[in-house]
């Protein structure tokens, strides 16, 4: 009877169906190659960045918390099957009184001790549903760990990219301050001789003050970025390498966006949403099993009963719990679980659509940022050619020193804009890889490596 009942599963087959996604992203003309899920930050070819990312993945406290939750979830999942294994315990009882009458009731003997055992059969799919809930819960915390790793990796890369951009802007701003000082000096000289145009001296002084103020702002931003990186590395002291200016991280490779359908396995938030659907379906199985009787087998072996003639004895038998008066409450719980399954299905579909929207938008942003950086780079080259012509004219006495100072200041401003454009391109690339679900371990690797 027990084997027959245990095969009557109350679980319903459940597949989390994703919304239809296009075969390619809107910005692509042909399906892209399969993307690289890990190590995308190495495309910037920056050893300091690579070291900081690896250090953060080992030391970041948010990752440590998520790893601890995964360890706890793994322990709970491993313990789930034991809920439906026989349990054994010891018990003892001593009875005394003032009466001298001999006690013949086996349950009131002066001393009773033994071992008790019980077994919940887990019929009607209760055991299988409980195990599926535990497995889904473990998968969810594993996916959440991957999501934290993706976020931390992207934040470290973004902060480092911004820091290098700020340091480059600072170098250019220091040169700009010097150029604006020369321009202001020429304006004062021209003003004393009466050759300056109206407002020329005031304009040059205002430009100099603005450059000095921008220099102070860049210093503050650099300090903030260094401290943010230190926090992401689980430390309060910034890395010494961050105080030395370095080249801006730039990736000339075209990112491999892949196919939109790959988001279903690459994005940990989508995988977690799918597991929540499976968990909700398994919880329906538990709620259904609660509508049926529950069989428990129990027994005791020990001294003191139940036989009067022997000091040892064995007692045992089945017990059945039948939901009668609380059937309505259990039925209501089943309806609630079905509603929660509908919610989980809707949340899964919404996660899929959000993932596609984020990947599409970040891909478009990256393309626009790269185009903007290329155009600004061409502008810098054109201004450099113009600046060289002015220097030649100045050496020949055909151009004023004021014009050369203005050309220098204009070129430095454009080069600073280019530094910002390169930063935006690199940050857009980081955002794209984050939206694609890169930097997370594939599920098979996570199961093997923990």
UniProtKB/TrEMBL annotation:
GO terms for molecular function: efflux transmembrane transporter activity. Belongs to the outer membrane factor (OMF) (TC 1.B.17) family. Residues 201-228 form a coiled coil. GO terms for cellular component: plasma membrane. InterPro entries: MdtP/NodT-like (IPR010131), OMP_efflux (IPR003423). The keyword Metal-binding does not apply. This is NodT family efflux transporter outer membrane factor (OMF) lipoprotein. It is a lipid-anchor. It comes from Bosea psychrotolerans. It is found in: Cell membrane. The keyword DNA-binding does not apply. Keywords: Coiled coil, Lipoprotein, Membrane, Palmitate, Transmembrane, Transmembrane beta strand.
């Amino acid at each position: 009877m027990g084997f027959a009942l245990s095969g009557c599963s109350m679980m319903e087959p459940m597949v989390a169906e994703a919304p239809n996604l296009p075969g390619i992203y809107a910005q692509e003309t042909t399906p892209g190659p399969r993307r690289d899920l890990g190590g995308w930050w190495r495309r910037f070819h920056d050893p300091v960045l690579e070291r900081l990312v690896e250090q953060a993945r080992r030391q970041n406290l948010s990752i440590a918390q998520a790893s601890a939750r995964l360890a706890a979830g793994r322990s709970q999942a491993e313990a789930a099957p034991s809920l439906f294994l026989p349990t054994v315990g010891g018990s003892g009882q001593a009875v005394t009184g003032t009466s001298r009458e001999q006690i013949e009731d086996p349950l009131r003997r002066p001393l009773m001790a033994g071992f008790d055992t019980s077994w919940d059969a887990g019929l009607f799919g209760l055991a299988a549903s409980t195990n599926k809930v535990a497995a889904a819960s473990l998968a969810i915390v594993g996916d959440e760990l991957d999501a934290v790793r993706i976020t931390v990796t992207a934040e470290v890369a973004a902060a480092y990219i911004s820091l290098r951009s700020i340091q480059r802007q600072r170098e250019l701003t220091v040169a700009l301050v010097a150029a604006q000082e020369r321009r202001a000096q020429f304006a004062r000289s021209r003003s004393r001789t009466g050759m300056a145009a109206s407002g020329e001296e005031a304009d040059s002084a205002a430009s100099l003050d603005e450059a000095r103020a921008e220099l102070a702002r860049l210093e503050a931003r650099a300090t903030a970025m260094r401290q943010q990186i230190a926090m992401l590395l689980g430390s309060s002291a910034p890395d010494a390498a961050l105080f030395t200016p370095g080249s801006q991280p730039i990736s000339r490779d075209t990112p491999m966006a892949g196919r939109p359908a790959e988001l279903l396995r690459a994005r940990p938030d989508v995988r977690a949403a799918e597991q929540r659907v499976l968990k909700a379906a398994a919880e329906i199985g538990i709620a259904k099993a609660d509508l049926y009787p529950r069989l428990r087998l129990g027994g005791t072996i020990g001294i003191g009963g139940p036989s009067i003639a022997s000091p040892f004895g064995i007692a045992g038998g089945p017990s059945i719990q039948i939901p009668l008066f609380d059937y309505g409450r259990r039925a209501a719980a089943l309806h609630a679980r079905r509603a929660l399954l509908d919610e989980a299905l809707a949340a899964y579909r919404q996660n899929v659509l959000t993932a596609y929207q984020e990947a599409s938008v970040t891909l478009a942003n990256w393309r626009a940022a790269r185009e903007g950086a290329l155009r600004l780079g061409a502008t810098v080259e054109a201004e450099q050619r113009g600046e060289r012509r002015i220097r030649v004219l100045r050496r020949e006495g055909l151009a004023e020193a004021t014009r050369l100072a203005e050309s220098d200041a204009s070129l430095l401003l454009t080069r600073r804009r280019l530094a910002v454009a390169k930063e935006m391109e690199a940050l857009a690339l980081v955002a794209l890889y984050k939206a694609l679900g890169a930097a997370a371990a594939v599920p098979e690797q996570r199961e093997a490596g923990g």
